[in-house]
Amino acid sequence: MARTNDEVARALAELASLTELDEGSPNAFRVRAYQNAERAVRSLSEDVGERSESELAQVKGIGKSIAGRIRQFVETGRIDKLEELREKHPPEKLKLMKVPGLGAKSVQLLEDELGVRDIDALAAALDDGRVSGLPGMGAKTVENLKEGIAKLGLTSKDQRVPIATALPAAERIVAALDEVPAVEQVAYAGSLRRFRADIGDVDVLVASDDPAGVREAFLASSEVDRTIGSGDTKTSVVTRDGVQVDLRVVPPASFGAALVYFTGSKAHNIRLRQRALERGWTLNEYALAVQRDDPGTDLEVVAQRTEAEIYEALELAFVPPELREDDGEVERASGDGFDALPTLGDLEGDLHDHTDLSGDGRDPLETLVAAAVDRGLSYLAITDHAEDLAMNGVSREGMLAQRAQLRELEQSRGDIRLLHGAELNIDAAGGVDYDADFLAGFDWLVASVHSYFARSVEEQTQRIVTAMRNPAVSAIGHLTGRKLGSRPGIELDVDAVLDAAVETGTAIEINAALSRLDAPVEVIREGARRGVTFVISTDAHAAGELARARFGIAQARRAGLGRASIANTWAWARFGSWLDERRV
Ligand code: DGT
Ligand code: CA
Ligand code: CA
Ligand code: ZN
């Protein structure tokens, strides 16, 4: 069976994490080698499976021994080394590395000294004081570890997975089920379809007349690690990524009703049911139907096949899944509706993009620009990391050379406006890279927090507000700096930050990376109310990542944010004059 580049890359990433744990250091040569190989595979445009071992070894970033492991995986679906490491370090132990402040060495120490092998055991040992007796584990460290576990919800009792893990797993499962002949329709539902940033479990719905056949195909999928339960109506499994998935197979006629029901939320469903009752109908996962006094009579269906029919029968505009939280959307659906919300096709530009001039960017300028044109964009800002960022920052000379190259490319192509920008680093006091004169030479500047995550609310708020007051700064990138599931964001006085954004005309970015989705939905919602201008940015570090614009759109929709407040949905004429106004 063919292995996709994505599957190979994920196996290499797992090898990197397990090797880090095994060797006790993130800097071990082998860890770096696996990480480089993962990156190399992700940026390969053709299928890894097509390449021989020696061809693979010639790819930059892939050494001889890893080339052999990739071939083994492509040919057999397994890697001996990976199986060996998995045996030695079970997934629960690996998860300890997700606790902020715990490295491979401390994880091993905890196991050797206290027998701690999972997060729950660690939480218990932190609580009863056993951890604070260990070398390097002072009172402050213990407090930080406890706080990290609580904020990220890592213990089994409040376990949720980040959308960056759940969504790709769900999309692979949906794609695989779509190939099964007995499947008429398939979709994921639940909190994932509502685009929550953290997911309890993934709900997958299939329309089919052959539930047993569908169930069998599902359980045979390579995504499935173990089965939790399998009954007539529902099959629950855990995937290799640790995501719980509930599969439900429904009769094709009921697919729309089931999709409404299992997308939820529960509170939204209750509102819909009330509306049905007011009309003498019932609403459940099978249908919107006329209420009957005698349960023996046949069901008189009002609507059931599609979601659209159900909302229409209830005299409501179709409610976008992202908004189904009983937070005013039902009122809006019987009033103004949702036409003001953005869709992917509304994006005219992208304003936060890295080339291989930044150490962490992977594609050259020309490639990124060509991909932006292919996606139908009419303007693009190149914002490589400014000089203060360790390792990846770009010198003044580097920036000037890129500017010349960019102007020339804009001229020669003639089909896209190119803005020369940079991603500045907000320092502890709110200052940024370079000097005012040099900054004035850029067209568009994003300023972001990349350091000092553990300061007080007052200090963090002051930092951001100071950066906003800097006339050179056009937008604040990934506002809180959070990494979903692994790093809590900085804490901010949101009201003060939003007020400063309005006062200074600084845009706030909606960073579309699934691991970020930053600014958070609550901040965007409040910002919209106050008249803040937003931009949806992919923060692409490779041409392929321009595609994640769809996640930024979903985040904006979930916040109920209209196109009018999203500057990069504006045509160039308007966007360009907005930029000019900001300069004076
Ligand atoms: P999660 O999994 O915790 O992230 O959140 P959901 O919303 O996906 O919740 P889940 O998986 O328990 O159930 C999926 C959907 O099924 C939920 O959004 C609404 C619907 N649902 C589940 N239980 C009930 C219920 O008791 N009443 C109603 N009206 N709907 C329910
Ligand atoms: Ca769910
Ligand atoms: Ca569920
Ligand atoms: Zn960036």
Task: Give a written overview of the molecule.
It is a single chain. This protein is of the alpha/beta class and 584 residues long. It has four domains: 3-152, Orthogonal Bundle (DNA polymerase, domain 1); 161-250, Beta Polymerase, domain 2, CATH 3.30.460; 268-333, Beta Polymerase, domain 3; 344-583, TIM Barrel (Alpha-Beta Barrel). The protein has 24 helices and 17 strands. Helix 1 packs across helix 7 and helix 20 runs parallel beside helix 21 (494-504). The radius of gyration is 26 Å and the shape is globular. The protein starts with a helix and ends with a helix. The structure holds 2'-deoxyguanosine-5'-triphosphate (DGT), calcium ion (2 copies) and zinc ion (ZN). One calcium ion binds at residues 190-191, 200-201, 203.
